[in-house]
């Protein structure tokens, strides 16, 4: 079941719900069914140091260093 963002046209509240395709959600604030369904944003990619290090190690193993800055490539003598 997808998660959707909803905007209540009656009271203006914005919220997200996990609903089945056939469900008719109502606003949790005012109970009105007059909602505008909006797709939820995807989760952003992680930016932790561990993820970056893992990606760089994989890139180095494959023989490319495109995700390194010019200064980092100079230190690695690539």
From TrEMBL:
InterPro entries the UniProt entry points to: Regulatory_FmdB_Zinc_ribbon (IPR013429)
Pfam families for the chain: Zn_ribbon_8
Domain Putative regulatory protein FmdB zinc ribbon: 1-40
Annotated protein name in UniProt: FmdB family regulatory protein
Organism domain of life: Bacteria
């Amino acid at each position: 079941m997808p998660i959707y963002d909803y905007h209540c046209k009656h009271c203006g509240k914005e919220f997200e719900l996990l609903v089945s395709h056939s469900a008719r959600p109502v606003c949790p604030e005012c109970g009105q069914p007059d909602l505008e369904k909006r797709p939820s944003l995807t989760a952003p990619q992680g930016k932790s140091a561990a993820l970056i290090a893992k990606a760089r190690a994989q890139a180095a193993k494959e023989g490319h260093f495109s995700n390194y800055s010019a200064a980092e490539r100079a230190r690695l003598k690539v």
